[in-house]
Amino acid sequence: MLTRKQMDLLRFINDRVARDGVPPSFDEMKTALDLRSKSGIHRLITALEERGFIRRLAHRARAIEILRLPDNLDAAPREGLRVIDGDRADPPAGARPVSEAEPRGEVTDLPLLGRIAAGEPIEAIADEAPEVAVPGAMLSAQGRHYALEVKGDSMIEAGINDGDIVVIRETAEAREGDIVVAQVEGYEATLKRFRSKGDMILLEAANPAYETRVLPRGSVSVQGRLVGLIRMY
After folding, report:
1. What is the largest CA-CA distance in the chain?
2. 3-state helix, strand, coil in the chain (%, to 5)
3. Which residue in 5, 30, 154, 221 is the catalytic one?
4. Which of the residues 37, 192, 196, 221 is marked catalytic?
5. Are 180 and 221 in contact (CB under 8 A)?
6. Active-site residue 38, yes or no?
7. pTM for the whole thing?
8. What pLDDT does residue 53 have?
9. Which residues on neighbouring strands pair with residue 122, listed in sequence order?
10. Cα separations in angstroms, 4 against 1, 16, 34
């Protein structure tokens, strides 16, 4: 499964090749996807290449060859709801400010943007965005919030089980010990406890069966902080 940004980039490259006979430049890709830097495009290109959708040809300018397209490329919306997008200054598409949430009162409906791994990182992406009712007491007075479904058991000793719905406040900052949505290597997301040590970030599980992941600071970006949990029985 492709993330929304990967799908958007693949569609843009395909459209430009069909129109002009050559792929777009990295600057054109960056502008089309509204990213702040070309490093985000490099990560998306790498992800598409690893998944077998494109191939980069050595020693040639704009040398990107499309190998295959997903079946749902035409049907997929051009702007979707996703969580993991570390190159944008704005929050994940679909995250809702408390001031815009309806109804205002004891319960607020938040978009359920996708799934988040409590285990090995997976891509967090939702093709559709149903809503989930969240008690207003879970939400801070300001800021954008969204919900994610947990997959995996690495956070069970923190009281977070497979199938739980976590409520996330969008933020790029984390304090020691916060449970966060962490984006890894530009396109994977996981729910872990945040620690830092020098130039390294530690993503700590709450299950002794899982090892703490130690990663360079530049390869991890915080997408949000856990503020609530909903469990269905």
Report:
1. 60
2. 20, 35, 45
3. 154
4. 192
5. no
6. no
7. 0.53
8. 87
9. 189
10. 9, 18, 13
